[in-house]
Specification:
By secondary structure, this protein is of the alpha/beta class. The chain has helices at 24-33, 48-65, 75-81, 95-102, 115-123, 148-157, 188-191, 196-211, and strands at 10-13, 38-41, 69-72, 85-88, 107-112, 128-132, 162-165, 183-186. Helix 1 (24-33) runs parallel beside helix 2 (48-65) and helix 1 (24-33) packs across helix 8 (196-211). It is globular and about 40 Å long. The two termini are 27 Å apart.
Length: 213
């Protein structure tokens, strides 16, 4: 699947700790129906067999709505389930190695925090960048904050799409206006909400307003 900037508008990163009565598959479908444009499956506690099974379940939904679908960190799971690509962090596999294993047709996302990391990731084959944490986040306790100025510098330095991530919600998203990001990646702002559909719909509307030049 080819990636364009419009796909990066509202990027959902899954987290099963808020599942309650629904399956992750049901939550993802609700989010997509309400405006999510990209899905990343993030699993830290499943073994590879369970991870692949969940990935196959989610892929059925993303395929149904023609939404790009990537796996967080785990290249083998991404290849096994036929995902559209993988997202790697700075402490995970090198972007160049991931690109070599993925091939040229799969999507490669890379997490960065500096202009230097952004330029290197782009050079090594990244299709898009995730920049953060832009706000304090409980989802990733070890994430260091990235300033608005650095976020804007990264956006202006690269030609590939950039999404901001980390602690973004409906109350602070407009603080990112003017940074030139192509979208936002969120976890709890979707999956921790009791009414995923309406919360996502509101977030989608705000994101459209925030990215508008």
């Amino acid at each position: 699947m080819k990636l364009d900037k419009s796909s990066m508008l509202l990027y959902a990163v899954t987290d099963r700790k808020w599942l309650l009565d629904n399956s992750l598959k049901e939550q993802v479908e609700q989010a997509i129906k309400a405006g999510v444009t990209f899905v990343q499956l993030r699993e830290k506690d499943l073994n590879d067999k369970e991870f692949i099974q969940e990935a196959e379940n989610i892929k059925k939904i993303t395929d149904k709505y023609n939404i790009p679908f990537v796996i967080n960190d785990n290249l083998e799971v991404a290849l096994s389930c036929g995902a559209d690509g993988v997202h790697v962090g700075q402490s995970d596999m090198k972007a160049s190695d991931a690109r070599n294993k993925l091939g040229k047709d799969k999507i490669l996302g890379v997490s960065v925090q500096t202009v230097q990391q952004a330029l290197e990731a782009e050079k090594n084959g990244a299709d898009y960048l995730g920049v953060g944490a832009v706000f304090s986040t409980t989802t990733k306790a070890d994430a260091n904050n990235v300033s608005f100025a650095t976020l804007k510098e990264i956006c202006d330095a690269v030609s590939i799409p950039v999404v901001a991530i980390g602690g973004i919600n409906k109350d602070n998203i407009m603080q990112l206006k003017g940074s030139n990001v192509d979208g936002v990646a969120v976890v709890s702002a979707i999956f921790a909400e009791r009414d995923i559909y309406n919360s996502t719909k509101e977030l989608y509307k705000l994101t459209c307003e925030m990215v508008k030049k």
